[in-house]
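We append the chain.
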Amino acid sequence: MVRKIAFGVLWLGFIVYAFFLAPPEQAGTFELIKNLSSGQWQGVNPLVIALFNLMGIWTLIYSAVVFIDGRGQKIPAWLFAIASFAVGIFALLPYLALREPNNKFVGKKNALLKLLDSRVTGVVLTVATVILVAYGLTGGDWGSFVQQWQTNRFINVMSLDFCLLCLLFPALLGDDMARRSWNLQFFWLITLIPLFGPLIYLSVRPPLQEVGVESISKQPAAN
């Protein structure tokens, strides 16, 4: 219950910050978002381009866990995961607040779960992230980015969204490791490396073992 309340309060607090306390919305924000989404990056700070695309990487990282975690939840995890592609942590925080601990996977993996569970997916995301980070760090203008962060609501909120995605991934990690019977000693090693820790985890985690519902129902009851 404490966990649910904490995530709920964090969600409400971030909403209040984003709409009432963050820097004001700047003219041209919609045009900037459209250009970032369509790849028209001329004249845009590479740091902003990298951050925008890394938000997409983060939603895929979470999807690789949330869609699997949702198999044992009463709430439709896919709805929150898909919404996160548009609004990031605003969609994932309610899921974290409403979900129940779930360290088992029951049933068969469909095509989507097989893709998200694949180590190849983790490797592809890692390579893409390395390219984006290198592009942003080598070509970006930090002075301009700081100024935009201080004056532009979109850049400010997106940056904080990115930080929250880094900080909250451990809320799902423990159960995902348990579903794979993976050594929990690696938990802190993964979580203490922002962004790349989760990516490495997706690239090396053991695949989920499919367990039929009928096999569970046939297990003898404990005396």
Summary: The longest helix spans residues 46-69. The chain has 13 helices and no strands.
